[in-house]
Design goal:
By secondary structure, the chain is mainly alpha-helical. It contains twelve helices and three strands; from the N terminus they run αααααααααβββααα. It folds into two domains: about 130 residues; about 80 residues, Nonspecific Lipid-transfer Protein, Chain A. The protein is about 55% helix and about 5% strand. The protein has a three-stranded mixed β-sheet. The radius of gyration is 17 Å and the shape is globular. This is Mycothiol-dependent maleylpyruvate isomerase metal-binding domain-containing protein. GO terms for molecular function: metal ion binding. InterPro entries: DinB/YfiT-like (IPR034660), Maleyloyr_isom (IPR017517), MDMPI_metal-binding (IPR024344).
Length: about 220
């Protein structure tokens, strides 16, 4: 069963990479330079981060050097490495993502579930500021949501959503406090919410709990 689940995740990862590469190919130069939902990252920086995930970059020496410059902060180091990678031509970034779409290489300290979640969320980080609708496949979105809900760092979703009842209207997801303040809507928007992207999700979510969402602090270190 576990092997079958891993195979499904890898197939989801490949589909998301290919569809995102197709989308990147369609963007204008101005769109590549647009601010994404990730703090300090343009669309090109987010695309670079996703494209470089399955390849053997950065090297250990590059990572160590980045960590030193970032005073040991992993997120700061990873953000800087992505910005450096993003200096490549946009065509190369998109082509690189397509080239590694079927790769099953797993970067350090991650797994296929994290890779899928990363692709789903970063796809929205790119498209929402551009006004482009990018639906999340239901099964993949359920897997991504459950992964974030089950983990602690960096999102701490269960702690941040304490006292709330999250209900997806388009998928079998119902989590949180059954007696808590109700927050309901599309699963993709709930996934944005629990990964610290409350602002773009607020207008799409319903329920008495939505009034409290603006006061929930984002994960420390900025939006990932």
């Amino acid at each position: 069963m576990e092997g079958e689940m891993d195979e499904t995740r890898w197939q989801d990862v490949e589909r998301e990479r290919l569809s995102l590469a197709d989308l990147l190919d369609s963007l204008t130069s101005a769109q590549w330079e647009t601010q994404s939902l990730c703090e300090r990252w343009r669309v090109r920086d987010v695309a670079a981060h996703v494209a470089m995930s399955p390849v053997p970059e950065p090297s250990m020496s590059t990572l160590v050097a980045a960590l030193v410059r970032a005073h040991g902060h992993l997120w700061e180091a990873a953000a800087a490495i992505a910005v450096d990678y993003a200096q490549r031509p946009t065509e190369e970034i998109a082509a690189g993502l397509r080239r590694v779409a079927a790769s099953r290489a797993v970067p350090r300290v991650t797994n296929p579930d994290n890779l899928l979640m990363d692709l789903l969320v970063h796809g929205q980080d790119i498209t929402i500021p551009l006004g482009i609708e990018r639906p999340m496949p239901t099964d993949a979105a359920v897997a991504g949501f459950r992964r974030v809900w089950s983990m602690g760092w960096p999102f701490h979703a269960r702690r941040r959503m304490r006292g709330m009842h999250l209900i997806a209207t388009d998928a079998p997801v119902d989590v949180g406090d059954p007696d808590g303040a109700r927050v309901q809507g599309r699963l993709g928007d709930l996934l944005l919410l629990i990964t610290g992207r409350a602002d773009p999700a607020l207008d799409r979510l319903d329920g008495e709990g939505t009034a409290r969402l603006r006061s929930i602090p984002r994960p420390s270190g900025g939006t990932r």
